[in-house]
Amino acid sequence: MACVVGNRTRVAIIRSRQITGLDPEVIAELVAEIGPLWHEQHQEALRSRPRWRAVGAGAKHKLVFIDRLLATLVHLRHGATHDVLACWFAVDRSTITRAIGELRPLLAQRGCTVTPGLRLHTLADVVNHLGENGKSGIIDGTEIRVRRPAAGHKDRDKFISGKNKQNAVKSMVLTDADGRLLYCSSAEPASCADITHARKLGLVRLLTDGPAVEILADAGYQGLGAQTGGRVVTPPHRKFKKNAPDWYEEIHEQRRKAHSSRRIRVEHGIAHLKNWKALARHHGRREHMSDTIQAVAALLSHQQAVTHTTDVRV
Hints:
This protein is an alpha/beta fold.
């Protein structure tokens, strides 16, 4: 039996953006793009191992590709467990686990979509894109709660966030001035400071050697401005810590609010990411977090690009 969920049910899932978080045309593009990649990956796995029967022989997939993709989207969007999805699609739990494990890396490697013909895969791509178009970028770090490592694990403490006092991983998010997602970094243990994470990703080198790009950041990135020739703009420092004149307090507050009002767009971008429950709190393996973050970022940016293109046409 190749068709697990009925065609009517499948169509209802595809048409409902509340279920997958994506418009039907976006899902259709995913099927056309990811389907051949998944098929080739599967055939390569078959060719690479010793076989006692011809390629193509044996049992067929009970879970067809479109259902595998829908199961992965529902898992990322709503955080549905593999057991629940297995009951929904009438297959074994291991089939769902294998399907998500195969599709998640393929979704993650797509990069963030800016326009239908332009995708950004690396931080260097983002900096060059902003420089070529004369736009500003906004960066911020976001934390995602994960399970605590087992007792006795040598790296048990490095996932503890000094800010929230919980076990988490961290990702650096970069959006444009309108809050559209341009980049999400791979996961880093939450004990890593925001500024350290940015340096590890090579942001200082890219801004120093690359095009003149303004990057807005919060106080966690103070110090990058001096290292990048003022290209990273952080909230103003306080010159008076005690007994500040009234005129200085007023000016400082105005400058701080002006910076915050420009930087708030990245918070909106992070909120859209956290609408995907797989990033609200992760209950699976920490090793999969980088693929999960970048897969959600790729899907969300693709939807944003389609929505933006539609709004422009209207």
